[in-house]
Write a structure and sequence with these properties.
The protein has 239 residues and is of the alpha/beta class. Helix content is 48%, strand content 15%. It has eight helices and six strands; from the N terminus they run βαβαβαβαβααβαα. α1 crosses α8 and α4 runs parallel beside α6.
Length: 239
């Protein structure tokens, strides 16, 4: 991948209890940084400290590597798009766009506000960004890649994640229905649905998941590095 620009939405998370446990987005940025002639712009929401740590570590290991980050709130995606678009004007139109942000609320009964937030982060925001960024890629006549992550496989057996699975299921349907449209515009759109992944997001439920694994209800927990490698492979392929 030469002279390519990559945008990753949703990176910079580390476990507060065990810093060796990272989010998929964090591992993905680290993996991309191993490639030559590549520039990365990634976004974070709550994890500013983690995002700055990630960027600093990469610059330390690869001094000439171009990397930048900014805060982006998927709940306020229409408003925050203005700052992201402004950043992209300087960074350049991304050849690769990865949407890795997600919201899970572990409760038996979600409030209407929580349901709305789940749908915004997991479905409305990524679709909005696909439309906006996809159009920019098309206008620049680039051969683009759009990769979305959807942990619906990890959540489908959990008793309190119906709304999460619904929102991610809608995103998967969008990809299936629109992939030919985007292909006609020079953009390949894919969705990666990893099974249970050891990230900061599942720490509070890890005992529950490990018990299910012992009972044979789930396959083993995979590492975020494995998922990052899979996504990178999709992005590097013919790009």
């Amino acid at each position: 991948m030469e002279n390519k620009r990559v945008l990753v939405v949703g990176a910079g998370s580390y476990s507060e209890k065990d810093p060796s446990i990272k989010g998929i987005g964090t591992c993905l940025v680290e993996r991309f940084a191993k490639e030559r002639n590549l520039s990365i712009l990634f976004t974070y929401y709550q994890s500013q400290e983690g995002a700055e740590k990630l960027a600093k570590n990469i610059k330390s290991e690869h001094p000439s590597f171009e990397i930048d980050c900014l805060r982006f709130n998927s709940l306020n995606y229409e408003l925050d798009w203005k700052s992201l678009e402004s950043k992209l004007a300087k960074f350049g139109t991304p050849d690769v766009f990865v949407y890795n942000a997600g919201l899970r609320v572990y409760k038996k009964s979600l409030t209407e506000e929580e349901k709305e937030a789940t749908m915004k982060v997991n479905y409305s925001c990524p679709v909005f960004l696909i439309e906006k960024i996809g159009e920019k890629v098309y206008q620049k006549e680039l051969k683009g890649k759009i990769i979305l992550t959807s942990s619906v496989l990890a959540g489908k057996h959990h008793p309190f994640l119906e709304d999460y699975c619904l929102s991610k299921g809608l995103l998967e349907r969008y990809v299936q229905e629109k992939k030919e449209y985007w292909k006609s515009r020079g953009i390949e759109i894919r969705i990666v649905s990893p099974n249970l992944t050891r990230t900061p997001m599942i720490e509070e439920q890890i005992d529950f998941y490990e018990e299910e694994i012992k009972q044979g209800k789930r396959p083993k927990i995979v590492s975020p590095e494995e998922i990052a490698e899979e996504i990178t492979s999709l992005c590097l392929n013919k790009c």
